[in-house]
Design a protein that fits this description.
Rossmann fold; Zinc Finger, Delta Prime, domain 3; 2 domains; 5-stranded parallel sheet; 15 helices; 5 strands
């Protein structure tokens, strides 16, 4: 496999940019273990001089990996040095450029592309289906199969932090033997992690499953640092409520894809959210009360809204359990 002499990692998704640079560096060093690595900030005053020195032939004929970061910030002298380097790289020297996207530095980007650079797409991954699709591919990169509900469980739990998601995929792929990996494995693996427990609790609350909600909360209290349970659970409940309201606000005849786009979830999850909304649509006064209760609880978990209203750790856990129980309903209502 031929390694591109010039590579442009284009986009603002730093996880993907870092991966592209690391992968290329590893690939070059497999071919040339002695290749020296130089990193240059394109916005620095000395960038042009550093670049010319880094790509200049040396007496020993050593290879090199020259990484120029943020070429959108390159001054004219640096841009000129980059163009020159793209057109006349010594044998064994590889040039890696990064650009966050956008119009700044577009002329330089166009020149780099015209010089034959290999472009790696590192554009920001949008929330919802784009992220779940990305996670499915991440598991494939690790040669693992995963169910869609496992991906959703992971995404809902961790949130839209690509670095954490990529790390979680790697951990699950390495440590979980089941194939395919299911939502149960995701929840079991992250048992005791407040954010994941919060996701499970939230799902049970908005499905008005009293017993499951209280049981999940008590398990989280036993397995997780008590200081984290409250804020993580409230954040998950609030996120679940926002999604629920978005689904409820869509026209009755809206397609699954339209609802998924509005709610920021994969299409296959729409049916579950519609079932949740059906449990609340006829009881909107109670839903409104839940919004107020959540807001009050958020303040209580963070130290109290009014002076002298802060709770001790035990009181916070009691308040949290009362909130979850009241919002989910009674055992008879679920």
């Amino acid at each position: 496999m031929t390694i591109a002499r010039v590579t442009l990692a284009m986009g603002a998704e730093t996880v993907l940019v870092d991966r592209a640079v690391r992968s290329l560096t590893a690939e070059i060093r497999r071919a040339d273990p002695g290749a020296q690595r130089a990193v240059i900030d394109a916005a620095s005053e000395s960038a042009a001089m550093e670049l010319r020195e880094a790509v200049a032939p040396n007496l020993f004929g050593d290879g090199g990996i020259v990484i120029v970061q943020g070429i959108d910030g390159a001054e004219e002298s640096t841009a000129r040095a980059i163009r020159e380097a793209c057109g006349d790289l010594p044998e064994g020297v590889y040039l890696v450029l990064t650009h966050p996207g956008g119009v700044k530095g577009k002329a330089l980007v166009d020149a780099v592309k015209q010089a034959g650079a290999d472009v790696v797409d590192c554009q920001t991954i949008k929330k919802g289906k784009a992220t779940t699709d990305f996670l499915m591919k991440e598991f494939s990169r690790h040669r693992r199969k995963v169910t869609p509900d496992a991906v959703a469980a992971l995404y809902d739990a961790v949130g839209h932090d690509l670095g954490l998601l990529v790390s979680a995929v790697s951990q699950l792929s390495s440590d979980v033997e089941a194939n395919p990996i299911t939502a149960d494995e995701v929840r079991a693996y992250f048992a005791g992690v407040a954010d994941v427990s919060g996701f499970v609790i939230s799902d049970a609350v908005w499905q008005r499953q009293y017993v499951d909600a209280v049981r999940a909360l008590r398990q989280a209290m036993l397995a997780t640092d008590s200081g984290r349970v409250g804020p993580a659970t409230i954040a998950s409940l609030a996120s679940g409520l926002r999604t629920l309201v978005r689904v409820g606000g869509m026209p009755p005849g809206a397609s699954e894809s339209d609802v998924a786009r509005e709610a920021g979830v994969p299409p296959w999850k729409v049916a579950q959210l519609r079932r949740q909304w059906a449990r609340w649509s006829g009881d909107q006064r109670r839903l409104a009360a839940a919004v107020v209760s959540l807001a009050d609880a958020d303040g209580a978990m963070k130290g109290g809204v009014r002076e002298g209203s802060s709770l001790d750790p035990g009181q916070k856990l009691l308040a949290l359990e009362l909130l979850v129980a009241r919002t989910a309903g009674t055992p008879a209502a679920s």
